[in-house]
Amino acid sequence: MEQRAKTRTGEVMDAIRRKIAGRALSPGEKLPSIRRFADIMGVSPSTVVEAYDRLAADGVIRARPGSGFYVSGGAPPLAVAAVEPRLDRAIDPFWVSRQSLDAGAGMLKPGCGWLPADWMPQAAIRRALRHLARADDSVLADYGGARGSFALRRLLARQFADEGLAVGPDQILLTLSGTQAIDLICRFLLRPGDTALVDDPGYFNFQALLRAHQVRIVGVPYTPTGPDPALFAQALEQHRPRLYITNSALHNPTGATLSPQTAHTLLNAAAAHDLVVVEDDIFAGFEPTPSPRLAALDGLTRVIRIGSFSKTLSASIRCGYIAARPDWLEALVDLQVATNFGGPSPVATEIIVAALSDGSYRKHLDGLHRRLARARREAAGKLDMLGVRPWLTPRGGPHLWCRLPDGRDAAAVARAALRDSLILAPGNVFSVSQSADGFMRFNVAQMENPRVYEALGRILAAPPVAEGAGEDAGDHASRLTAPAPASA
Amino acid sequence: MEQRAKTRTGEVMDAIRRKIAGRALSPGEKLPSIRRFADIMGVSPSTVVEAYDRLAADGVIRARPGSGFYVSGGAPPLAVAAVEPRLDRAIDPFWVSRQSLDAGAGMLKPGCGWLPADWMPQAAIRRALRHLARADDSVLADYGGARGSFALRRLLARQFADEGLAVGPDQILLTLSGTQAIDLICRFLLRPGDTALVDDPGYFNFQALLRAHQVRIVGVPYTPTGPDPALFAQALEQHRPRLYITNSALHNPTGATLSPQTAHTLLNAAAAHDLVVVEDDIFAGFEPTPSPRLAALDGLTRVIRIGSFSKTLSASIRCGYIAARPDWLEALVDLQVATNFGGPSPVATEIIVAALSDGSYRKHLDGLHRRLARARREAAGKLDMLGVRPWLTPRGGPHLWCRLPDGRDAAAVARAALRDSLILAPGNVFSVSQSADGFMRFNVAQMENPRVYEALGRILAAPPVAEGAGEDAGDHASRLTAPAPASA
């Protein structure tokens, strides 16, 4: 027994040493709390206490009284970081994004929200880069205009005109990303303590963003044809939200499409309660045929349209946009100057204009639609064999919102999957009400490797593991709203 | 007399029509108030009233009762925008940035804060782009890691080590710009109603940014060796600020250098009052020899280092960074995920790493230092002939902070210069206390065209024009903190 405890202490010590060597823990970084690390390693807290004490004696880590243990300082080795999955991260709205963004090369990412790089129009991007290498000096080294590239705004205005939305290029502001577009709008319209409405389930980062703005978040249950109109009206009545953020074209995570009736009803309710609607059109390129758009119905009176190019062109070349009423847009331009000294890189917008204007882009989109439809069928078939069933079959896009079999807890499955180098998107990260614990969002474009299904099958076949309580919920998010004091 | 009034009305109407045709006023955009436009055009308010009424009768603009006049809607022409200087903009912290960013090709910009594009390392950037056209798919189309390019963070960590600041790559977060770096820090540390300290004079966009965070701004008078230590201590005592934002290397706008004594004294005062200091190192590349750095003295205990590559590499390829305590940095990473879904474009960071690692970069900097020293001597000599004298001679960088002759008002000179297609940076945009109306910041790298001195000479030789009161000050900035209501 003592021997076994010693071995376990050694295992914990080895795990910490590996994290430090692999730079998953940096000099000066705080180690996980003893309780949390005991949970992660499946050992008793006293084993972790002993391991931490011995590592401190070795000088590998050091204790700060009343604060915890920290990795010792000293000039760190300048080796290439071996990124490891962060097993100790809480299942919160940051869970999927941080895991997906920082995934190492060996990780599979059915939980991430974008396409593999080789599904993107690589040839067009490379042509754009070679073209850019011969551009004017000012494109390569000067700031762009405060609204960003006129050529790209004109191109967007033409796209909008095609959907019946008459917007001049000056009513468009280019931003650094789709997310930053919404962030600017939140800065403009929201104050701490205001209320904002999101879909439930809905895109997890809307929650993370709204929390950063210290607003109350209210979720409206999402149906296969949009938010439930009666509950939407009730939420407006009861909570008087200032803003509603939603996806158009294909809803994230469900892949559902807004019906014309729901769109019309929502806008009437919004008008009656003086609600501003942000329509995130980021999935437009995935649509095989057009669906109702709030911005087009409303004519940008109270709807603000945002979007980006990261889903069907490149997530690396960062750029988003806002189309809004001229008076609002002018204030948003100033806010972007104040907070970012202007818009996206002229280098980025040149590449985007070139790639979008490249004759091959329409063909690329058609190819994507076919490839995604095939991948969707295949993934749905294989998931079905595991008892994992989609809530609905989307018209396009990479997402399948699925119910897990046998009341399995998606967070527990996602945690187990991480140990198998699999990043999943458990339902509750999308749910303000935390009512989607039996759901999981899958990205069919990231599931071509059979290892995905092998690992999922193994995890779902094993009996459920009891989860350590108190790790999920809001303790992580609260860090954003209650910053560390400036103590030395 | 009646004939003359008619002509004037026609002139005002023509001016509005030109603005609309040139897209300086967009469909739906609000026209300047009658009083303001009367001031700008040098006509009586009744002339403007008549002009607006007649344009409204023509359908060119329309009145909204109780609100003012707006440009009529309708699908705007998709022609290339002819950018015009905005004569009606208030002289506030946005004045220089918006004018400089949106300057048309014919404008000269001695007031802007960056180098002409052909002073930048164009050959290295073009080599980097050609190289990038052959990069891995994932660099061209995938999101980067949440902290951004490891290669660039390692390169920065090595630079920091050279100045005696031991920081691991994981203690560095890449951001979308230097300004966005400060914005993230403000989000993390400040709450509406907090107080922040800036230099007076100091970089105007610090004011714009802090106003967007709805904090009180207190200025500390800047001396040739840094902020006045006694007044700095007094401001801490009296206002209990949470944050102080300043430039290292070469202060903006004065070009002054912090002395070792002042640096040491400031940090002691900061420690005594639990103040966090943001050191903006954006001008580091302009320094011929190193000067004291707060971050290096403090070891990143309460100092946060930020910077970017826009001054000596490229303002187009947008990227900044933050180096901070590990616990703060981790929260900043989450905030950047929430508000921008991660960091800068991998495309951007690849170009920057390649250009900085290019053997030619050190030589480029040496060349810049020589070229700037020569330009500084020449500009100082020519300005001297006009009676414009620098407050001090900076050790490097493009800026000369100059006193105008004969008590001339810098805002009036800057307004007059705009009519001559010259963008200037009048002193008070840099001054929280509005006490720098006799000063002007010049950028010697933007003054090679003799037209700059001809126009300046003409304006300074003419008798001062009385300025319309009430246009400057904070009415513009207040738009950011009191957003338009969501009325249809």
UniProtKB/TrEMBL annotation, chains A, B:
One Pfam annotation, family name? Aminotran_1_2
Q: Where is this region: Disordered?
A: 467-488
Please name the GO terms that the record assigns under molecular function.
DNA binding; DNA-binding transcription factor activity; pyridoxal phosphate binding; transaminase activity
State the superkingdom: Bacteria
Identify the residues that the record assigns to the HTH gntR-type domain, covering every copy.
6-74
Print the keywords alphabetically.
Aminotransferase, DNA-binding, Pyridoxal phosphate, Transcription, Transcription regulation, Transferase
User: SUPFAM superfamilies attached here?
Assistant: PLP-dependent transferases, Winged helix' DNA-binding domain
Q: Does Amino-acid biosynthesis show up as a keyword for this record?
A: no
Q: Fetch the PANTHER family from UniProt.
A: HTH-TYPE TRANSCRIPTIONAL REGULATORY PROTEIN GABR, TRANSCRIPTIONAL REGULATORY PROTEIN
Family that this chain belongs to: In the C-terminal section; belongs to the class-I pyridoxal-phosphate-dependent aminotransferase family.
Q: What is this protein called?
A: PLP-dependent aminotransferase family protein
